[in-house]
Amino acid sequence: MVAPLLEVKNLRKYFPFKKGFLTREKIYVKAVDGVSFSIFRGKSFGLVGESGSGKTTVARVILRLIEPTEGEVFFDGKNLFEVSEDEVEVMRREMQIIFQDPHSSLNPRKTVFKSVAEPLIIHEKLKGQKLRERVEELLETVGLKQEHMFRYPHELSGGQKQRVGIARALSLNPKLLILDEPTSALDVSVQAQLLNFLESLQKKLNLTYLFISHNLAVIRYTCDWVGVMYLGKIVEMGNTEAVFSSPKHPYTQALISAVPVPEAEPSEMMILLEGDIPSATNIPSGCRFHTRCPVKIGSICEEKEPSPFRFSDGREVSCHLFH
Amino acid sequence: MRPVLEIHDLRVEFDTFEGVAHVLDGVHLTLGKRETLGLVGETGCGKSITAKAILRLLPIPPARILSGKILFNGVDLLKISDEEMKKIRGRDIAMVFQDPMTFLNPVFTIEEQLVDVLMAHSDREVSQKRMDREKAKKKAIELLREVKIPQPELRIKSYPYEFSGGMRQRVLIAMALSSSPQILIADEPTTALDVTIQAQILKLLKDLVDQHGHSVLLISHDLGVVAKLCKRISVMYAGNIVEDCSTPQLFRNPLHPYTRGLLGSILTFKEKKQEAQGILGTLPNLISPPSGCRFHPRCGEAMKVCEREKPPMIKIEGGHWVSCHLFRHPFSQKERVD
Amino acid sequence: MAFENSISLIWKKFRTERESQLRELSRTFYTLLHSPLSMIGLILVTLFLGVALIGPWMITYPEDIKGAVHIDQKLKPPSRSHPFGTDEVGRDIYSRVIMGTRLSLQIGLIIIFVAMGIGVPLGIIAGYSGGWINQVIMRVTDIFLSVPGLLLALAIVGALGPGIKNAMIALSIVWWPGYVRLVQAKTLALKEESFIEAARSIGASKLRIIFNHILPNCTSPIIVKASMDMGMAILFAANLGFIGVGAQPPMPEWGAMISTGRNYLPDFWWMATFPGLAILITVLGFNLLGDGLRDILDPQSRGQIR
Known about the structure:
Chain A has about 325 residues and is an alpha/beta fold.
């Protein structure tokens, strides 16, 4: 049995949220409230969810850009939260992140060259000709030309900026790439190109991907395995094709039916959820989805939190309908 | 029946540091009564500028309207006075924008803002008196009820920041529809919203439009959203309308190479995964756009004439128009008058 | 031949690497050219700097700068030999005003640089560290900012004693809090940007992030503030000189000259008028230039036509 490259166990992240200067009670924003999943080498795992689902926070905790409240993350067998500061530095090189907004993920005052070269300067202390060659190589890998090297970010298109971000992330030869909404800010025609490119890159370099997105089509297109998040928990997890073609959790079903499909005669059928997404400071008791669930069974949904039920094909669903 | 909105050959320029950008290059658009039209295109194609031009909201320098007509029930909006435009803007033609937070004043309650709008638009008929405040307050609550905001009598006293994104968008829709406009222009109304909230808002819009019979111009880059709400679609590229047809025609029989490229870029969601292709090349520089057909440098089927001449709008069949030399046939059907 | 080749190679390399920066510079100038007020500001400031630089070669009576006394020439109105007239001890006002330019430039630069030297690092530290460090620094800054500048300067000079050196110390103390505020606010905003997160994720140290990422992005607002501050600093120094606690006679400082000249108004108007005009032109120039720079360097006005 091969061990997964990344294993997340019971991850929690609570942000303190003081309501007033004089109130005693401490309110927490429970951004991530018990998340567990694994990703195997060379595979793509997608975390999908709407605002408040906690998916972005999960990514940042894995990279230790934010410290966790509870839980464990194992990377290549090592517990990320128990290693020393030095070892964290080493781990940092093996995990990289591509950000959502290409327009602000590059320092506007740095040329493309300087941005891509920075990790090499910090970690490998490269200089001069050697540095230049490595940067040229990386830019070629992402399909950018020499002429782009000394441009400033505002002179590049969104797709090009995103590629610079990828080049920068690849410079240290990471094993895991976390992609936080990599195509949200891009046009449809550019999106497909970038995703195809990411797929070929993955095969070429045997990369492992953690995709984070609210766009179900993107996740379905790119990931082998998917986790659907709602208010800090994974409500359904499994093989992407299986989950999308026959979703079991009511939230997943509503989510999928809500996606407007570009087709000649779109179906009128939509599972409409009532009301808004609850605030993460005031998470509903029991099953956190019960306030909007169209197939709520009864009081058990209000009182008890469902635990994940495992199917034989690896699917996991957290819902009282399944026991 | 005469269309409620007709745009003929609209040309707009913008002064920028690098030169003059030719953002709209002869836009043709028709919106019929009770019709829902989707204006689809990618960033920079000029769809938002078209919408702003209709409402005369373009900042006149640096923008310049070179030529063209925008006929609202036969009246050219580009020729009427500012006073007359004010009567139309917001009342007969209303607009809903993308980001509801920046379009609601954060220091006033929802009630104050709705009442303001209602009272301002109430004296549209010469005979009608300006609505009084009490009446406006009652109508405002009714409006909120119509857009399905729960407990409207209570929520109306809230400030915009107390509402979620979806609720704010409902308020904007309520404001826009308060004066029973003939045309509702919605510019990316659901782009900033979560998927499940987007579904709610789209259903709301559909129900309201079905009920009241507004004509809708929906602007979006998302073909799925447009397909859900609109019966007709106009595809825009670099300041030109390249294809104009019904929704089923667009998906079953896309003609323009750009449209086909766009459809090919969509990640299929319903069926099993199919490879999506992008469109090669980049958006053209509007300051020195390509000669002839603006899409020709990226078009796999470009011919010599495409570089020389801009193709006219050609009628194909049953309300399907396309602007492409591939469809110019010696025995072609009637070409639209340019 | 080889030499020429290598020169052209170096130039080519410089060109490709700096192409974008050169384009930025030309764009800045182009935008400046299109705003008449900014152009006026630029011309006035250039005039100021020019006079300050070549001052010693422009003056006609070098000995009048400091201590010379020509009682027989006193209080002469503007004439060919004395374009700005003479003062109460017969010194040529033209020469003194010209040299006063150089003096004002020195005063302004010293104040601004000391203020930046204290204010900018404090601002970045406050903004980036957050927490109690931020609170402490900002509250101390607030205390300084709560006292009107000139009063505070007067109080400090009162304590230290009159003189141009003490005046500059006092004004530097008045000026540094403004920079802290500006830089702290900008740092706070920058901290949330994705590229700072990206820098952390690639393993950049705190120091590297501050110097390499945050500081370069602060330069625009700092430049704008500094150019407007130059004018104001010179004005404040003149104020102190006018009151009598700044530059002391016989230094050819404009404020001090107006102070003496005030007693001879209105009959011998030229003594106060010409130094006054010099202050007016200088401060106006820097203000207009600062305004113009702010319009250019403000990221909102970049590029997008949508």
